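Progress against Task 2.4 (sequence-to-structure conversion) is shown through the following example record, which the project officer requested during the mid-term review.
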Amino acid sequence: MLTRLSTSDTPKRQTISSRSCIQGRREATLKVAAPLTIRTVTSLDEFKSLAQDWEVLLRTIPAHSLFLTWEWLYIWAKHFLGDRRLRILLMLDDQERLVGIAPLFLRTNRAQGLISFRELRFLASETETINSSYLDVIANEKQKRVVLQRLYQYLFDEARAEWDVLTLSEIPAESSTIDLWNELFAEAGKVGEIVCATCCPVIRLPGDVDTYRAGLGRSRRYTLQRKMTCLKEMGQMEYSRVTSSAEVNAALDWMITLHQGRWNTGSSGGVCAIDHAKRFHKEIVQVMRERGWVSIDLLKLDDRLIAAIYGFIYQGVYHSYLPGFDPATIFSKASPGMLLLYHRIEQAIWDGAHTVDLLMGAEPYKLDCSNALRRSLTLQYYNRHARALGLKVLESAKQAVKMLMR
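Structure tokens generated for the chain above:
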């Protein structure tokens, strides 16, 4: 059974143990699995044609993630797939209805510069500059078990020769996929591990702004009022949200400029440091705008843009995706980025949202204003290949060296 991580656990590599009772359940369930057919999508043209069917399936899954939408994954693949290979697995029932999707791609990687291996991963999980949270196999709960059974059979039988390592990134800790998959996987000779754990600070919203403000506490309300007064003393402040295509393009350019102005001096260079990341955002923001899912909010002082937040509105959740603020020292006491964030939280309440999700990362400012955390796990599994065995041995040796060096 999979070892769960508490909120205090660090994202250390953990091994999933095998149990004979689980193996017995696996053998029993596989015998009665529904006869699902798998079709593999390997080209962007095929992927593009799936938009409507993909959305129909997602509608059957309550509270699914924005990052599982066809729009997000297709545009990611269009800009980042490169020479990697699409391996989107569609599970169809006996009436050719789509009941499950495993949105995967295959890449060749090298461990420690020594062993070349083939890795299956979720789409949109590999690029550090494009953060995607809450990824998963797409299936509603009534069909999840048989979908995962068929996926397991396919990967370890029909497609066994194609891959060495399977990495399932950023699965929500509460997802049934984790337990159902590991029931199937807990078979002698197969190894699975938790290789990473991340958290997303979130704000569970009350029904009205007054209740939200009261919940902040006197000290926080005083701090925000003091910073707002400080900014007002510098000039005329104005909050706004852009909606038209031209406005969104211009606002995104300014937002990227603000964001990069802050991060260009750092080692990462910011999330828009590479050209195809900028092209991705240029396209995704227009596609999401047409669906009514994008929100770019601005704070200006005397018509000078000093803070911006680029986010998404989806299924009652506002996702604060990318902030930017003017790093000029003159604004440091007023904290325009903080003021805009709290303003945007209140706007989410007015818009009827039930949650503000600050997304991946435990930065102090996120923890400071959140009232809950969502955890995600990255799981890794090894195939029965000599190459996969060599990779596992190499990883174990690496961990042993780290222990000895402490």
